[in-house]
Write a structure and sequence with these properties.
It is flat and about 110 Å long. A hairpin with a 3-residue loop joins strand 22 and strand 23. By secondary structure, it is α+β, with helices and mostly antiparallel strands. It has 9 helices and 24 strands. The two termini are 54 Å apart.
Length: 498
């Protein structure tokens, strides 16, 4: 069984390379001296009492604080370090939620002062307390029957957590909310069941163990999780209980039973993988109006297509393989012939059809090309978020690429930044792209978009791409994919076409 200590014993990680405040200060001073040497050609060495060093140190404090936030943010994605609300969000990725606080419960016996000819009511929420001011309230309405003296009622502590646990029988006996004709109320068993909100350590351990709930490696737990998720009763009815021989299990029979029991599914697949029985159930598209198995209804086409095969479970098939059908066309009529005539049924079945999906992509036939003259310009400026200490000179170039480097100079109330810019004179022109290159790129993009539309796990029978030019400026690529899907959709009999 997995041990949470494996997580706790993993090596520590740092998303900031274990940098300290002294490291950041040293790096900023070194960068400043290097930039000044590069910009002025003169070596600059900041003294320990230099104003510039103090500015850099004050900026380093803020930068290091931001680095701490970055380090913490990265660590919160790791189970070893995650805590509080961060751990709650991490746990959701495994389908695990933190256990909320629970209130302790007990059974309280209410006793009437004398037998009565009428029932004696005890309202829900009637409170009874202990000497330690711990309150329990009844969870439901109850009454002492006529001619009886007592009734037992389940009650829970008004406060969640462990505080309500451990009160022995008889300790909860002070009636806070008087009830007519009731002379006493006493707990009959020790109060228990209260719990505080699950702590981080317990939640982290459950997150670590969560993958065991969906193991497919073949153990008994994996079998029970997969094979009995949809069909616990059906498996037992067929005599399928682990462990048993493969020859005694009939996947086809199990599949038919599941399809009949769960008509909302699109299809069911049952088969063996090694020594593990795998049952895959794919939900179908829900119909617009819920139908019972006994109500009348037809099966219509959910989309256009060509029928490949049809399997009728209830009703009368109106199409056959090879027929072209349109969306909304009736495929299986909700009627069946009997010895005495025709009776209405809820039509059900699987109609596999060839369908086609399309995705279109447009791409320009030209691209921007940059050519450089070899001329350059350089400038240095100091700016703040609100103004520049001096303005950059206007460039003599009509078009230019710009390379920019910045160095924060610090300052909490007046943050300053030194900016170095180098401009490269260039000319930007449009050039036609090679037809083979743009056709291949557009085709790949169209096929990728088609996959996004139909889903990455869907299987294609065939696929192709058609390309055409629009006004000699744009290439239009249309990707078409052919699939084999179940187009059956159940609707009430006589409902208007969609």
């Amino acid at each position: 069984m997995p041990d949470i200590s494996a997580i706790q014993n993993t090596p520590d990680v740092s998303f900031i390379d274990n940098k300290t405040i002294d490291d950041v200060r040293g790096d900023m001073v070194a960068d400043f001296e290097a930039f000044m040497l590069q910009a002025t050609g003169s070596k600059v060495s900041l003294g320990r009492a230099s104003v510039h060093r103090m500015i850099l140190y004050s900026a380093a404090a803020q930068i290091y604080q931001a680095m701490q936030y970055v380090d913490r943010a990265g660590k919160q994605s790791l189970l070893k370090y995650s805590y509080s609300e961060f751990l709650d969000n991490l746990a959701l990725l495994k389908g695990v939620t933190r256990e909320p606080a629970k209130a302790a419960t007990t059974t309280i016996r209410f006793t009437a002062s004398a037998t009565r000819t009428l029932a004696t009511p005890i309202p829900a929420g009637t409170r009874v307390s202990s000497s330690g001011s711990i309150y329990f309230s009844t969870m439901e309405y109850a009454e002492i029957p006529a001619g009886s003296l007592t009734v037992d009622v389940l009650a829970e502590c008004t406060a969640t957590g462990n505080a309500g646990n451990g009160l022995a029988p008889g300790e909860v006996s002070t009636i806070v909310d008087p009830v007519p004709y009731i002379i006493s109320a006493v707990n009959q068993n020790t109060t228990e069941g209260g719990a505080d909100v699950e702590n981080d350590e317990s939640l982290a351990e459950r997150v670590y163990l969560a993958p065991g709930a969906y193991s497919t490696a073949g153990p008994e737990d994996g079998y029970l999780y997969h094979a009995k998720k949809y069909n616990a009763a059906n498996c037992e009815a067929l005599g399928i209980t682990p462990p048993m021989r493969k020859s005694d299990v009939h996947p086809g029979q199990l599949r038919d039973l599941l399809e009949w029991r769960y008509p909302e599914t699109a299809w069911v697949e049952c088969g063996w993988r090694g020594m593990t029985l795998l049952i895959r159930v794919v939900d179908g598209v829900p119909a617009g109006t819920p139908l019972s198995e006994t109500g009348a209804g037809d099966v219509v086409a959910a989309r256009d297509g060509i029928v490949d095969s049809i399997r009728t479970k209830a009703g009368t098939a109106l199409v056959q393989p090879g027929d072209v059908v349109r969306k909304g066309q009736i495929l299986i009529r909700g009627e069946e012939r009997t010895g005495s005539g025709v009776r209405a049924v809820s039509a059900r079945g699987v109609v596999m059809a060839r369908v086609w999906d399309e995705a279109a992509v447009r791409m320009d036939l030209t691209e921007l090309h940059t050519s450089y003259s070899g001329r350059t310009e350089e400038s240095v400026s100091v700016v703040s978020p609100w103004f520049a200490l001096w303005h950059e000179p206007e460039s003599a170039f009509h078009q230019a690429d710009v390379s920019r480097r910045t160095l924060p100079l610090g300052g909490f109330f007046l943050p300053l930044t030194c900016v170095w810019e180098k401009r490269y004179e260039c000319e930007i022109t449009k050039q036609n792209r090679a037809n083979e290159e743009i056709t291949a790129e557009a085709s790949i993009a169209a096929l990728r978009k088609l996959r996004e539309i139909i889903g990455t796990n869907e299987s294609l029978v065939d696929k192709w791409v058609n390309c055409s030019m629009i006004d000699h400026e744009v290439l239009l690529a249309v990707a078409t994919g052919e699939r084999l899907v179940d187009i059956a959709e159940q609707i009430p009999s006589g409902a208007p076409d969609k």
